[in-house]
Amino acid sequence: GMVTNVHLEAAKSNDGKKKKINNKWTEFCEAWVEFKDKKIAKQVVEILNETKIPKKYVKNRMARNHIWNMKYLKGFGWHHLTEYKQTIRTLQRKKYEIKIADAHRQTAYFES
Q1: C-beta of residue 47 within 8 angstroms of C-beta of residue 30
Q2: pTM of the full predicted structure?
Q3: Contacts of 40 (CB under 8 A, 6+ apart)
Q4: Ranges in the chain, pLDDT < 70
Q5: Cα 10 from Cα 20, distance rounded (Å)
Q6: Backbone dihedral angles phi then psi of residue 77, each to the nearest 5 degrees
Q7: Bridge pairing between strands 28-35 and 25-26
């Protein structure tokens, strides 16, 4: 079937940076794939769910025993994913702004 969109979400370490495998490859924790035809998408999920990823698709020895875990999201559109990513970015920015404002308040308190 024809794939229209793919989005890979990089895994984050405790310090917020992207996780790397052997300092070369980015480790991914989630992925979204959009197919043109929903029948094909359902078939792909049915066939590949909970199967080992074939060796020819895995370049790293450490990731050879990984398993595909797939789910068909009924009614989910690509715009939902972009809205979700925007919301997360906005919340992170607000959190950062609150921390900065807090630091300014503390500095002003101790300077006076």
Answers
A1: no
A2: 0.59
A3: 1, 2
A4: 21-22, 24-25, 59-63
A5: 9
A6: -110, 160
A7: unpaired
